[in-house]
Amino acid sequence: MTTTNLTPLPQTSVSHCPATHFTHLTPRAGNETSQTISRAPVCVRVLQQEARWSRGLMAGLRSGSGATTRARQRGHRAAGTLPTLLPLLLLTCCVRCSAAAAAAAAAKPSNIILILADDQDVLLGGMTPMKKTKALIGDAGATFVNAFTVTPLCCPSRSSILTGQYPHNHEVRNNSLSGNCSSLQWQKGPESTAFPRYLYKQKYQTFFAGKYLNQYGKKDGDVGYVPPGWDQWHALVGNSQYYNYTLSVNGKEEKHGDSYEKDYFTDLITNRSLRFLDDRSPQHPFFLMLSPPAPHSPWTAAPQYQKEFADVKAPRDGSFDKLGKDKHWLLRQPVNPMPDSSLTFLDSAYRKRWQTLLSVDDMVELLVKKLESIKELDNTYIFYTSDNGYHTGQFSLPIDKRQLYEFDIRVPLMVRGPGIKPNQTLQAPVLNIDLAPTLLDISGVNLSSVNVDGQSFLSQMAPSLRNGTVRPVFLVEYTGEGHPTTDPACPKLGPGLSQCFPDCVCEDAFNNTYACVRTLNKDHDLQYCEFADTESFVEVYNLVSDPHQLENVWKKMDPTFLQAMNQQLIKLQSCQGDSCRDIK
Fold first, then answer.
1. Tens of pLDDT along 149-187?
2. Of 81, 181, 226, 485, which residue is 20 to 30 A from 282 by alpha carbon distance?
3. What is the 3-state secondary structure (H, E, C) of 276-325?
4. pTM
5. What is the pLDDT of residues 241-289, one digit of tens each?
6. Which residues belong to any copy of the Sulfatase N-terminal domain (predicted)?
């Protein structure tokens, strides 16, 4: 029998089948390497089999030795069907190909991006400059109008986000090393079981860029320390900066100067995240956590945005420049009314904060465009939030956070992604300790195996995917920070204070230590707080009738109610895991 070689099938006949996946190496912790295996497209392999079958058939047709006339006639009939048969084979192949691709896409967990701003309020207009972010995330998904931090300060709040735990469980008390911020105790304990490690085990490609924890890289572990769970690590050493900073890049020191093109930190985070998306392996899901410095001080905007919002001033409504006469002593000490110098300062800070956020708005737009271009947008959850709120003149406090009031504990939260219907405004309270379990829920982790105090809110924004419950009460807690000696510029104040301004108005103190029960449901909107000080001071607010918390109604409340709130607070302050979610 004579054999005949057929011309190879042209590539155009399978151009709509999935492209070949090439080998891609991703650095992992230690000496591990994740690798995407090179493989031929499904349709190419099927067509190769069909081509081999056709070659055999044609060879038989063209060979006359030992063949009967009937056989030749059968062969000619078969040969006549080949032009019709091959398109059918192609169609069958590519249907199989498309089905296989769809099955593979369905099997791959969704990608996740978490964007964490620094000190961005929501009550005082902090989201106003972010028109692109609101359109691309909020309008395209869900906006949570009752999102809270469980502690209004950077390091303990970020530690709660990473662990899904209240501060009394992860034990990070404030921004200092002695307050357990990025300490060896933190690294060996709570950080070792933070959510990035679980995502890593789920085969996520993980990327971090931005501010991590305020004391990271400054002492314990230095820049060579990379927390577990991260494939790519681009972390700021210390607190937020826009220029002249140091990064730990996968454990190696990288210094930056004051060139906008090379060093502006928000843009650097954006550019490196886009590069990561280009270099990723398409076979595995990815997780990016991007933590820009904005709108934290020193409020250095990109050059093109430094003249924006020239006429904007801090809002003068609500509790602005109101005397905190019935509040904790720290709120009773500011000068009231505020001097013109303080007003000028806080108005300038307010404008600059907005200016810095415009670069974050650009970041969101570029990320969404990149996800569209690599055809991953529809399979990616994008979260946007902040570590805590902020105040600018409320109760005559110039600028800061750390206080128990709504302006400091409420944060922006918007999410878009698979299963989330657009233009949703959700009322149920969500906490920053809920972020970790929600991310793990999306990734497929069994939440019963994870030690978290929070709960997934995937059911709230995508009820078609999950069932869930809404918590009736939650805890807000903070440990005050102070200096052991008196500030020489303010000798009359004595020791124990910190964050003091030139006019001797201080934003924090050792005994600015409090815990609050926050009740928010269809029947109640209440806050009950106790201070750990010599006064055993209590503040209670009915936010239905007093949304700006102008009147402390503690002395007007029924003693039975106060006792019940005290007992609820005691339970919350000692809760762990399930017991934090079960308190009614």
1. 999 999 999 999 999 999 999 999 999 999 999 999 999
2. 226
3. HHHHCCCCCCEEEEEECCCCCCCCCCCHHHCCCCCCCCCCCCCCECCCCC
4. 0.83
5. 999 999 999 999 999 999 999 999 999 999 999 999 999 999 999 999 9
6. 110-445
At which residue do the structure tokens 């504990």 appear? 409
Angle at CA 233, nearest 5°, toward 432 and 352? 60
Q: Is the pLDDT of residue 441 over 90?
A: yes
pLDDT for the residue numbered 228: 98
Which residues does the annotation mark as catalytic? 154
In the three-class reduction of DSSP (H, G, I as helix; E, B as strand; rest coil), residue 563 is classed as helix
Among the listed residues 228, 227, 232, 226, the one whose alpha carbon sits nearest the alpha carbon of residue 206 = 232
Answer whether 301's CB lies under 8 Å from 355's CB: yes
- Alpha-carbon span 516 to 124, nearest angstrom: 22
Q: What token pair was written down for 126?
A: 């902090």
Q: Which residues contact 332 (CB under 8 A, 6 or more apart)?
A: 323, 324, 325
Q: Where are the beta strands (DSSP E) in 39-153?
A: 111-117, 142-144, 147-148
- Is the separation of the CB atoms in 111 and 376 below 8 Å? yes
Q: How confident is residue 38, by pLDDT bands cut at 50, 70 and 90?
A: very low
Q: Which single residue is written with the structure tokens 């995407």?
A: 36
* Strand order across the 286-291 sheet: 252-255, 246-249, 232-236, 205-210, 286-291, 111-117, 380-386, 413-416, 142-144, 424-426
Q: In the predicted model, what is the mean pLDDT of the chain?
A: 86
- Whether the pLDDT of residue 347 is over 80: the answer is yes
Domains and CATH numbers, the chain: 111-471 (3.40.720.10)
3-class secondary structure, 554: helix
- At 166, list the tokens: 């209240």
